[in-house]
Amino acid sequence: MSTKNAMVHWATRPQEHDYPAAASYLSLIAGRARVQALVKELRAAPVQHFQAKDLLRAAGLGLLPRENPHVAKDLATIADGGSLSPCLIVRGRLRAGRAAYIADGYHRICASYWSDEDTEIPVKIVSS
């Protein structure tokens, strides 16, 4: 199953379960009230597009291997022509030296990168 340069299809909006997943992650780095506010903002945010390689760089995260079970599952979805859910991002702060947070979608970003690092990924992004 080769997905190199395979077309990545995206849903028009995140799946409902992506928001609680983002809240769970964000609760590790912010208090409850701030997490609730961020998730509310993410729900209302418009979809924007960024390249897979830029999202990983902005978050300061490495590329997960193709063999990672979650990445492999998303690669299979890509190969089958299925749609991936847009990602949820909290913007970093350049002056504070804080990277962006991929609140939900790290595995999808990595799978998209494996397909084509220039893949335009739909994301909802809010400021921290």
**Helix and strand sequence:** EHHEHHEEEHE
Strand order of the largest sheet: 2-6-4-5
Number of helices: 5
The count of strands amounts to 6
Runs with pLDDT <50, length 5+?
none
Which whole number gives the mean pLDDT?
Answer: 94
C-alpha end-to-end distance: 39 Å
Question: Which class of secondary structure composition applies to the elements?
Answer: alpha/beta
What overall form do the CA principal axes indicate?
globular
Biggest sheet character? 4 strands, mixed
Strand content: 15-25%
Radius of gyration: 14 Å
Briefly say what this structure is.
With 128 residues, this protein is α/β, with parallel strands linked by helices. The chain has helices spanning 18-26, 32-44, 52-59, 69-79, 106-115, and strands at residues 9-10, 47-51, 83-84, 87-91, 101-104, 120-127.
Structure overview:
The protein has helices spanning 18-26, 32-44, 52-59, 69-79, 106-115, and strands spanning 9-10, 47-51, 83-84, 87-91, 101-104, 120-127. The chain has a four-stranded mixed β-sheet with strand order 2-6-4-5, with helices on both faces. Strands 1-3 form a two-stranded parallel ribbon. With 128 residues, it is an alpha/beta fold. The chain is globular, with a radius of gyration of 14 Å.
